[in-house]
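Module 6 notes. Inverse folding takes a fixed backbone as the condition and produces residue identities as the prediction. Think of it as a translation problem where the source language is geometry and the target language is the twenty amino acids. Below is one complete input and output pair. Work through it position by position during the lab.
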């Protein structure tokens, strides 16, 4: 059975069905009085961790534009926790991205959250157009639905699900700026394009306590996050081990090492290759990682969602890029630096280049 082909055919049928159901109406922002908007739904459940965090400046822009509005965001099970306690967001709805995650309790909570009256729904599609995101915005019953004209469905009008349509960018732009362009269409602008997350005082204290329990001084500790979901996105563990030897052996830094679930073998390989004493801190969840990262002098990582998490936590972050072009995917936060291998792979990023970049980063506050 060719499931992908059947899925595409089903989506085409759904698009035609909604084309018959949804009225053909489109409004320019200058035709609308949006100042009375008091409830906003932002739909961003289609993407991975990094994509979600890249959209937080757009959510902040909505907060600035509508300071009295209550903002709800839909995100997937895996990523939603990074939105909790964000001062720009009032409520987070959880979308089960896989059938096994679609428990009755989760589905009921999502449906209940969708049926609250919304004045405005905003769909932050970027590199692709998500039909499920559009349907969720439509299900909310929001009077105004804003989305991009980019990546229209084949055979459908650009405003099929939206009655306010942001023009598609004339050329490729950074992913943060792509999301910002959608909300700028209705006058929402961000004073800072950096990614954002909120930690409670208790979470910040927990992160500091973890470091003290492992005899790590925050101002003298550099974190290395070894993993990445996709193997091509990993800088070689031997390179990380050599970097740890350099940081600790030549410059006196303490090194905390992180890896995620199902990356135990990677951690063991690293520990077998490193020559200096390091503090392994594996298995932390996303909010725990952010709490520890917040206290570190610097985090070195791959260009994965953890890179965005570290930058959003406000930590100086250094990343080794591979297949993703940093021009479009790097965090726009201050104190971020990245290098790209000559042949655009992790393995081709040379250790000396990484060392040079780290020296440059640390020299902004203190010479290594």
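Target side of the pair, the amino acids:
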């Amino acid at each position: 059975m060719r499931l992908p082909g059947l899925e595409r055919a089903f989506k085409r049928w759904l698009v035609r069905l909604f084309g018959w159901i949804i009225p053909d109406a489109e409004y320019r922002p200058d035709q609308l009085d949006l100042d009375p908007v008091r409830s906003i739904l932002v739909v961003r459940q289609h993407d991975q961790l990094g994509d979600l965090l890249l959209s937080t400046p757009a959510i902040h822009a909505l907060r600035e534009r509508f300071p009295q509005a209550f903002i709800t965001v839909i995100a997937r099970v895996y990523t939603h926790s990074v939105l909790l306690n964000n001062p720009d967001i009032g409520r987070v709805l959880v979308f089960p991205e896989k059938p096994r995650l679609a428990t009755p309790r989760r589905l009921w909570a999502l449906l209940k959250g969708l049926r609250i009256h919304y004045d405005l729904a905003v769909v932050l599609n970027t590199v692709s157009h998500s039909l499920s995101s559009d349907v969720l915005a439509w299900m909310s019953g929001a009077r105004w639905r804003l989305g991009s004209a980019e990546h229209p469905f084949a055979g459908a009008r650009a405003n099929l699900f939206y009655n306010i349509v942001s023009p598609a960018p004339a050329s490729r732009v950074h992913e943060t700026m792509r999301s910002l362009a959608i909300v700028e269409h209705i006058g929402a602008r961000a004073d800072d394009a950096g990614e954002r997350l909120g930690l409670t005082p208790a979470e910040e204290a927990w992160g500091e306590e973890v470091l003290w329990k492992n005899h790590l001084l925050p101002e003298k500790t550099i974190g290395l996050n070894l993993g990445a979901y996709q193997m091509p996105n990993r800088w070689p563990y031997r390179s990380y081990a050599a970097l740890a030897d350099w940081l600790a052996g030549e410059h006196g830094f303490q090194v905390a090492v992180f890896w995620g679930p199902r990356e135990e073998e990677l951690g063991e390989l690293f520990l077998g290759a490193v020559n200096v004493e390091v503090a392994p801190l594996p298995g932390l969840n996303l909010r725990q990682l952010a709490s520890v990262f917040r206290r570190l002098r610097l985090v070195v990582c791959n260009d994965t969602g953890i890179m965005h998490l570290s930058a959003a936590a406000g930590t100086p972050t250094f990343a080794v890029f591979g297949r993703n072009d940093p021009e479009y995917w790097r965090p726009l936060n201050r104190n971020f630096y990245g290098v790209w291998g000559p042949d655009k792979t992790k393995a081709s990023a040379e250790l000396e280049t990484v060392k040079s970049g780290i020296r440059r980063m640390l020299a902004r506050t203190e010479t290594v």
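Reference fact for the lab report: The chain has a mean pLDDT of 92.
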